[in-house]
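Quick one, probably user error.
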């Protein structure tokens, strides 16, 4: 059984140059969409990710999680002009 991770745990994973699990990525995106993760924590995660990068798996999982979050948001489409 895995323990429930906090935003600080997710930041620390990237600071330590480790790979996040798919569940970690899902938790991050859920926290972004429901605003349960504070802006400064998102900024810290983004900085750690910028400095240390994402693995191919993390890129795929993040893309899928963002897509799924967008689909469940009720927004049908965006128009860019």
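Nope, works fine. Designed sequence:
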């Amino acid at each position: 059984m895995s323990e429930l991770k906090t935003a600080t745990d997710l930041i620390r994973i990237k600071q330590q140059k480790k790979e996040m699990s798919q569940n970690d990525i899902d938790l991050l995106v859920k926290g972004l969409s429901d605003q349960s993760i504070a802006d400064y924590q998102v900024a810290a995660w983004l900085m750690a990710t910028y400095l240390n990068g994402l693995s191919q798996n993390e890129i795929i999982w993040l893309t899928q999680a963002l897509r799924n979050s967008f689909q469940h948001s009720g927004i049908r489409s965006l128009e860019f002009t």
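The mean pLDDT is 89.
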